[in-house]
Amino acid sequence: MTDSNDKPTLGRKPLGLKRSVEAGEVKQTFSHGRTNKVVVEVKRRKVIPGKPGEGGQGVEAPAAAPAPAPAPVAQPVRPPLPPVRPAPVAASRETRQEMQARLLREAEEARLAAGEAATRREQEEKARQLEEERRRAEENRRAAEAAAAPAPVVEEAPKVEEAPAPAPVVEAAPAPAPVAPVQVEAPKAAPVEEKPAAPAPRRFTPVQSPAPAPRRPEAAAPAPSKKPAPSRGKAADERRGGKLTVNRALNEDEGARARSLAALKRAREKERRAHFGGQYQQREKQVRDVIVPEAITVQELANRMAEKAADLVKSLFKMGMVVTLNHTIDQDTAELLVEEFGHNIQRVSESDVDIDTTVDVDADETLKNRPPVVAIMGHVDHGKTSLLDALRGTDVVRGEAGGITQHIGAYQIKTKGGDLVTFLDTPGHEAFTEMRMRGANVTDIVILVVAGDDGLMPQTIEAINHTKAAGVPMIVAITKSDKPEFNPQKIRERLLEHEIIVEQMSGDVQDVEVSAKTGAGLQDLIDKILLQAELMELKSNPDRAAEATVIEAKLDKGKGPLATVLINRGTLKVGDIFVVGTQSGRVRAMLDDKGRQVKQAPPSLPVEVLGLGGVPMAGDTLTVVESEARAREVAAFRQEQATTKRTTSAPASLENMFSALAAKQSVIEYPILVKADVQGSVEAIVNALNRLSNDEIKLKVLASGVGAITESDVNLAAASGAPIVGFNVRPNAKAREIIERFKVRMKYFDVIYHLTDDVAKEMAGVWGPERIETVVGRAEVKEVFPAGKHNKAAGLLVVEGYIKKGLHTRLTRNDVIVSKTTVASLRRFKDDVAEVRAGLECGVVLEATNDVKAGDMLEVFEVEMRERTL
């Protein structure tokens, strides 16, 4: 190769003593408009036309000798390439920013060319690819044979028009690799003869291009006259990047940095597709069975189909439906969408959405023994809570307002023998009827507490009826055995009236005499409870999803909505997803009756659950479900059903409309707002207040709820003029400000019968006193004569009773009331008198009326205003 470098390097002039290092600035451009200037050194390589064969010059020159052969092909295809290489001289005619932009443009063109080649390869079929490989192998063989004669290649170097030879030369295995980059430099130096062709001498690293060099001719093999251009452009781009290493590195980094994440993902996707031969994107669509209820949102349907929600919205737009992701569509529309996307639909009705626990029956082999649940019921002040305190060894009575139980409590005790018993303490006041009924429905055994010195009372009889309706066994506990008035035999006889026959009277109902004060009979009571539970064989399946009943619910300021639940079956665990009534949630924590946190709650254990979405109704069933989506679906369905039930009215008719209008005009409404600490108290208060209504005045509960009195409650009360009744709750800070501003009436209570008495008096005051009329006399008008300028006097004959001055009168004509007025003046002859008795004649002047004729009847009556009571 040293023999071919006899000539100076294509006529370039030696640079002499000119500076070989120039200082310049490169402007870096980053994403988001950021820029930075970096000072770099641009070195010029000194080209000295030495002897052929000295040093590295003698070795580089031969590389430039064979260059003219491929040069003619690249020159017409890539016209912008010749002015690119003379970087030191071009600096005087174009700025570095322009050169940098040009280099970036050429690099981008090279990348685009590579992308196009990859796309073409991707679209070719396997058979086509195999044929192409065979054809390329044949061409490579011919190119290798042609490359064996280097002399003709050197002779054709100055010719710019001959193109066939260069392609085979570039295709040669290791040796042509350095030739390919040099071939591009020869034509660049030829057109710019006045400038030294710097590319050939300073490009001494052509060994880096063997990998891309063979790929370009392979892609260009089908059309040798047109395809070499991108390959030469790629090689030239790589060679030119060698000089401006700093600029090129900065620009490439910046280009990668400026590209978006989506562009990078697309590039990686192209690489994968090219690697897998175009089979990467061929994926089989997964057909799903989509469960569709009667109404479903677009987003939920997209989730069930595993499709993009935007695609569903587009399809609905094409159908003429303008919807969003949160719109609800019917089942037929959902079916069209499911079939359009190639899935299978499974229709379900509304009843299928809700949870039906009646069909979920546990197998006998899964059942295990569980503790009994015992409800203590009876009349108020008969010692129910005191008895439970004695059993628990605690004192709950002191914590209850007024000494009466107003909440339903749930406790679990451990006997001396290690047995567990769960007790429910229900209120005995008449207002808590529904609480007692709930307590009877969720228990296994009922202890009927009857005071031995008092006997059977109304709530005792009510508890007996609840127990019979629930169908649970009963144990009669006759309390207060320490009092001298204690008479248990009288209680047993009175129980016969209600078909309760105790064992001492040859019946099947157990009874026990106890005293909560002295503790007498407590152990006997526990033994009888355990005996009854053993006879009942109480069992449950603990190894399943939990199912529980809400005993009480409230809203705590620090903990949020709370619910005291009794586990019926299964085991409730922290983290379980559940639905209770119209609310859903996840168990964040559980507290037992002593305030200790527990991780699991087995059957028959009462626990307080935290993590509810809202305050449920007492008596609702808590059911653990598999996912949050299922819980929300069931809760939304139940909420919709409750709303429909609440807002649905009877079919309108003309008679109903007039009767309702007449009732509205005649009935006085008394609005009120109720807030209490627990859901059971709210329920009891509202029921007790509704019983105060009658035909003339009706109590209307505008709103009721659990928790503190909030500003929204105060605003509603201020707008309607209604008082707010707070039961064991108080307003918050913002609510107090609004109360002071609007002077809203507030009523606070902690005993329920105090609340009902006060509201009854308030309603009676709004209703007003009762007007009572008493007829005291009647008279007949005999003659009418003038009295003064405007008035008329009537001459009367008192028929019965008496007439007094100032009394109320009714003037009737043919038994039709003409006017209501009072007696303004009463005279007998010419004297004013206070009273005229029956059988006497008198003259009267009626107040504010002159419509008096002979023959009219005058009815005189007294009015008494009497205070009302409810």
From TrEMBL:
Residues 1-29, 45-166, 186-249 are annotated as: Disordered. Transmembrane segments: none annotated. Its main location: cytoplasm. Residues 145-155, 219-233 have a biased composition (Low complexity). The keyword Cytoplasm applies. It is found in: Cytoplasm. InterPro entries: EF-G-like_DII, IF2_assoc_dom_bac, IF2_II, IF2_N, P-loop_NTPase, Small_GTP-bd, T_Tr_GTP-bd_dom, TF_IF2_bacterial-like. Residues 65-86 have a biased composition (Pro residues). Residues 93-111, 118-144 have a biased composition (Basic and acidic residues). Residues 369-539 form the Tr-type G domain. It comes from the Bacteria. CDD domains: IF2_eIF5B (cd01887), IF2_mtIF2_II (cd03702), mtIF2_IVc (cd03692). GTP binds at residues 378-385, 425-429. GO terms for molecular function: GTP binding; GTPase activity; translation initiation factor activity. Keywords: Cytoplasm, GTP-binding, Initiation factor, Nucleotide-binding, Protein biosynthesis. Pfam families: EF-G_D2 (PF22042), GTP_EFTU (PF00009), IF-2 (PF11987), IF2_assoc (PF08364), IF2_N (PF04760). GO terms for cellular component: cytosol. NCBIfam families: IF-2 (TIGR00487), small_GTP (TIGR00231). One of the essential components for the initiation of protein synthesis. Protects formylmethionyl-tRNA from spontaneous hydrolysis and promotes its binding to the 30S ribosomal subunits. Also involved in the hydrolysis of GTP during the formation of the 70S ribosomal complex. Belongs to the TRAFAC class translation factor GTPase superfamily. Classic translation factor GTPase family. IF-2 subfamily. This is Translation initiation factor IF-2. It comes from Novosphingobium sediminicola. The gene is infB.
